[in-house]
Queue: 2 jobs
Job 1
Amino acid sequence: MAETALTNTVVPHPRPPGWQGIVADWSSDQRAFKNVPWGKAMMWIFLLSDTFIFGCFLLAYMTARMSTTVPWPNPSEVFALEIAGHHIPLILIAIMTFVLISSSGTMAMAVNFGYRRDRVKTAILMLVTAVLGAAFVGMQAFEWTKLIMEGVRPWENPWGAAQFGSSFFMITGFHGTHVTFGVIFLIIIARKVWRGDFDHGRRGFFTSRRGNYEVVEIMGLYWHFVDLVWVFIFAFFYLW
Amino acid sequence: MVDVLSDTNTGITPAEVVDVELYHPKSWWTTYIFSQDAKVIAIQYALTAMAIGMVALVLSWLMRLQLGFPGTFSFIDPSQYLQFITMHGMIMVIYLLTALFLGGFGNYLIPLMVGARDMVFPYVNMLSYWIYLLAVVVLVATFFVPGGPTGAGWTLYPPQAILSGTPGGNEWGIILMLASLILFIIGFTMGGLNYVVTVLQARTRGMTLMRMPLTVWGIFTATVMALLAFPALFVAAVMMLLDRALGTSFFMPTLQEMGQLMKYGGGSPLLFQHLFWFFGHPEVYIVALPAFGIVSDLISTHARKNIFGYRMMVWAIVAIGALSFVVWAHHMYVSGMHPQFGFFFATTTLIIAIPTAIKVYNWVLTLWRGDIHLTVPMLFALAFIVTFVNGGLTGLFLGNVVVDVPLSDTMFVVAHFHMVMGVAPIMVVFGAIYHWYPKITGRMLNDGLGKFHFWVTFLGAYAVFFPMHYVGLQGMPRRYHDIGETSFIPASAHDLNAFISVAALIVGAAQLVFVFNLAWSLFKGKEAGGNPWGATTLEWQTPQTPPAHGNWGKELPIVYRWAYDYSVPGAPRDFVPQNEPPGGFAVQGARA
Ligand code: HEM
Ligand SMILES: [Cu+2]
C-alpha cells in the first residue's frame, strides 16, 4: 500500500503550547497519527473495542463470583495436576502461561526481522509463534477435557457455585477462540512472507491490494494483545 | 475563530495522487452486488434498513390498532402484542436507525466529505454489509419459526426473556434474536473500524479535523461510541444465549415455573440490566449524534449562513459522546439498585443536558437572521429542532429519580423516547434523504410530494405522540395489550387512544408517498446538476454526479477553508466551496 509511506504531511506552524497543542496535533492535516498506516490504526481501534468485550466478560464473571451465596471452588485445587506422584497446584496453567508469553517473544522477533525484510527468519519465527499458540490451545483442550471428565459442566460442577463452570468455559473459550484465529492468521501471513509476496507486491486474493511487511507488525499487535488478555484472565480467574 | 482564511495552505502544491489501490470491479456482480465501493455499500445498507423499517412500521400499525380499539381486532392476541412491540422497538433502534445513519449515511458521506477515494478497507466494508444482511435475515426468520419472535420487549430483560411464559422464550424466538444481534455487532464492527480510520487517517490535503463538516463529526463520534458500547451488548447476548441454550445461570436466579423449581440458580438479572444499558444509553446518542451533525449542515446550507459556534458544536458532540457512558443507570431507577446510584446517575444525566442545550442554542442562532429557504430538507431540520427540544424536556423530567419512579413504565416514557430518539432522528433521516438524493441519483425529489410528506409526517407525529404524554400521566402502562376497565384511567384517555391510532395510520400511510417519490424521481425527477443547493462541502464538488468510482478525478481536492463559508461578504457567490483556493475575493477580503 503506497499510501502508508506518506511522510511529507506538512505541519505548517510551530505547535501552540499546552492543550491547544494537543488538539492541534490531533486534528492536524490529513492524518491524526502521522506515518501510522491504515491497517495499524485499524488494529489498534479494534483492540480497544475488543478490550471492552473482555472487560465486560471479566466484570460479569467477578460480579457472579462476588454475589454467589454458594462457595466458589478453589482454583488452586481444581487446576492441580498429579505429576510423578506430586500434587502440583496450577502447574498446567503455569506452563500454558509460559508458552504464551514465550510466543510473544518470538512474535516480537518476527516483527523485528520483518522490518529488516528478512523473509526467511520472519516466516520461521511466525511459524514458531503459531506452533506455540497451537500448543497453548492444545493444553487448553486438555484442561477442558480433564474438567469435563471430573464432572464440570457449564451449568454445574461437583464443588460449588455453578457459575464457576459457566464463567470458566465462556471466558477461556472466548480467549481460546482468539488464539485460534491468531494461529490461523499467523500461518497465512507466514506463508505470504515466505513466498515473498511483500517483496514483489503480489496482490491479495480477496482485497487485490499489495501487502507489505507492516502486516507482520499488525499481526504482532493482535498477538501481544491476546497474550495480555491472558495475563488478566490468569490473574482474575486462576490466582484469585 | 476558525481558520477560515488562514494562510497555512496557500502555498500547497496539488496533492500528489496517492495510490490507494482501489479495487476496480470487472463484472456486473462486483460492480453492483458484491461491490467494494462505499457508495454502493451505502445504498445497499440504506435500502435494506428502510425495507426492514417498513416491517417495524407495519408492526406499529398493528399495535396502535389494538391500543386504539381494544377488543375489535381479535387476531391480535396478548402474546402477539408483546412480539410486535419487541420487534418494532428492536428493528427501529438497531436495524433501521443505527444501520441507516452509520452504514448508510456514514458510508456515503464520510469518504466524499473528507475527500477520500473510498473507505480505507473496502473489502472489509463490503463484508460488513453482507453480515448485516445476514443479521436482518435471521431477524426476519424469527417471524416464521415455531413460537414466533421473542416478546421480551426490546430490552430483553431476563429472567422473563427466556422463560416459557414469554412468547418465544423457550422456543426459537429469543435464540435467533440474540444470534441476530451478535451478527449485527460483528458486521457493524467491520464497518465501524473503517469509518473511524477513514476519518482519522485518510483525509485529503487541508482537511484538518477542525474543518470537517459537522456531519462527519457526528457520524465519527457515534461510530467510536458504538465500537465501545456494542461490546457490552455482545457480552450480554452471549451470556443470555448460554443461559438459554446450555442452562448456565449468569442472569437467572432460583425460580419456579408452573410450580416447578427450575434448574437455574444464583445468577443476577441486575447484571444484565447494567450490561444492556451500558450499551443502551450510548445507543440513544449513536442515533442522535449523526442526526445532530447532519442537521447542523442542513440548517447552515439552507439558511445560507455559517454554523454558529462551530468549535463549540464539535466539543459538544465529543462531550455528549463521553458523558453518555456514565449515565446508563437512569434506566434502572426502579430496578432495586442502591439509591445512591440513583443520585449519581441523575446528576450525570442532568449534566449531559448542558452540551445538548448548547447545540440547540447554536442551531437557533444559526437560523437567526439567516436567509432561510424553506426547502423540504430545511423543513425537516426545523421539525427536528422542535421535536428534539420537546423530547429533551421530558427527558429532564424522567432523569430525576422522584419523577421517574411514578412515570416509569407508563406511556409517558413511550412518548418521551419516541419524541427524542424516534421522531427527531427520523426527521433528520428524511431531511438528509431529500438533501442528498440529488447527489446520489442526479435527480431532485419531487418538491410537492416532499412538502406533502413533510406536513403529514410532522403534524401526524405530533398528533400521535403529544397526547401520549397525557395518557401516560393518567397512568396508562406501557407494554399492555389491553388495559380493560381501569378505574383511574378516564374515558377521555380511551378516546385519545383511538385518536392516536388514527393519526398513526395516517402517518404510516404518508410514508408510502415518500417511497413512491423515491422511485418516481429516480426516472422522472428534475435533473439536479452537481450542486443544486449551493453547498460548500466536498461531496457537492465532485467532477461527476453521481460521483464515479474513486469519487474524484485524477487529483484529490485540496481543502482551503472550513465547511461553512456561506454569504461571505465580497464573495462572488453566496457560498464558497471548501476546495476553492483563497485567490480572488478571498485575498481582498483578508487584506482589506
Ligand atoms: C409511526 C411511527 C411509530 C409509532 C406509531 C410507534 C408506536 C409504538 C407503540 C404503540 C409502542 C408500544 C407501546 C407499548 O405498548 O409499550 C412502541 C414501542 C417502541 N417504539 Fe415505536 N412507534 C413509531 C416509531 C418508532 C421509531 C421511529 C422508533 C425508533 C427509535 C421507535 C422505537 C420504539 C421502541 C424502542 C419501543 C419500545 C418497545 C418496547 O417496549 O420494548 N418507534 N412504538
Ligand atoms: Cu438513557
Job 2
Amino acid sequence: MAFVNLKKKEVQVKIVYYGPGRGGKTTNLEYIYKKFNARIKTEMVAIKTHGDRTLFFDFLPFDIGKIKGYDVKIQLYTVPGQVKYNATRRLVLRGVDGIVFVADSMKVRREKNLLSLKNLQENLSTYKKNIFKIPMVLQYNKIDLSEHGIPLLSPEILGKDLNTQLKAPSFEASALLGSNVVATLKKSISITMASLKKELK
Amino acid sequence: MDYTLGQKELDSMEEILQKDLIDLGVHCVFLIDMAGNIIVNLDNGDIEHDIYSLAALAAGNFGAVSAMARIVGENEFSLLFHKGKKENIHFSKVMTDFLLVTIFGRETSLGFLRLKVAEAIKKIKVIL
Ligand SMILES: Nc1nc2c(ncn2[C@@H]2O[C@H](COP(=O)(O)OP(=O)(O)OP(=O)(O)O)[C@@H](O)[C@H]2O)c(=O)[nH]1
Ligand SMILES: [Mg+2]
C-alpha cells in the first residue's frame, strides 16, 4: 500500500525481508546500512532481544532519489523469524509492497525455509494479498559457509523447494560478507517499483 | 491497493493540524497510515525528530496495543499516551486505517490536547 504524496511529490514504498529465524534478514539490513551510510541520515531501528534476535522488526529508510520526478523513499523492514512471533510478523506485513524472502542455505534448515514460506503465504492472505502476485525476490543466504565445510543446499534444490511455483528472481548471497546483498535489494526495488509504476503518472 | 492524496486534500489537512494543534503549542504532529507511511507532518520548527522511524514505530506500537486489547477482550484501549519528563506522545486512531500522533510538552495539558485532537480528527475525517 504505497503512499503517493502529490504535494511533496514523494512515494513511500514498503519492502519487507521475510524468512526463517536466524536466516540473515537483520544481517542484510545491517550490511545495507553500513554500505550506504552516507545516504541514510538516520539510525537503523532494531527492536530485538538480548540475544540479538529480532523481537518486533528492524527498520531502515532508504532514499533512492527521483523516479519520474517523484522522490522515492524505500522503507526496509525485517520481521522476526522465530515461529512464536507470528502476531508481530503479521503486523509488520501490513501495507507491504514487496518481499525479499531470505532462505537459509544450510542443509539443516531445509524444513524451516518451507514452513516460513508457507507462513508468509498465510499471513499475506489475511491482508487479501496473493503470494504469487506480490513482487518477490528470493535470496539463498549463507553460501560462504561452504568454505567452512558446512553442508549446504544447492541453489537447484532451494529453487525446487521454494521457487517452482513462484518463479521469482533469486540470488545466492552472503549477507555476512555482503555478496549479492545489494543485488537482491536492487532487484526487489526495481520489480516493486515496476508494479507500482502505473500509480506514478 | 496504493492510494494517493492530492495537493488540495493535503493542504487542507495541514491547515487543520497547524491551526488546531501546532498554533496552540503542540511541538510536532503527524498523520500516518497503519503501514507506517507518513501522510502529513508538521512541527513548530524547534525540533528535529526522525519522523520516518517514529512513524514506523508508532504504527507497530499501535498494532501491538490493539492486539493486546483484543486478547483481554477489549475492542480498543481509548487512551494511548506516553508521558516523559519534557515530551509526551499521544496516539489517536482516525477511522480504521490512520493514526494521528502528537508530541507535546509540559505546557499543554492532556485534557486540552485530547479535546483539540478530537476536534481536528473530526475535520480530517471529512477529507480522508
Ligand atoms: N556465515 C554466515 N552467517 C550469516 C550470514 N547471514 C547471517 N549470518 C549469521 O546468522 C545469524 C543470524 O542472523 P540474523 O541476521 O540475526 O538473522 P535473522 O533472520 O534476522 O533472525 P531473526 O531475527 O531471529 O528472524 C547471525 O549470527 C549472523 O551473523 C551469512 O551470509 N553467512
Ligand atoms: Mg532479525
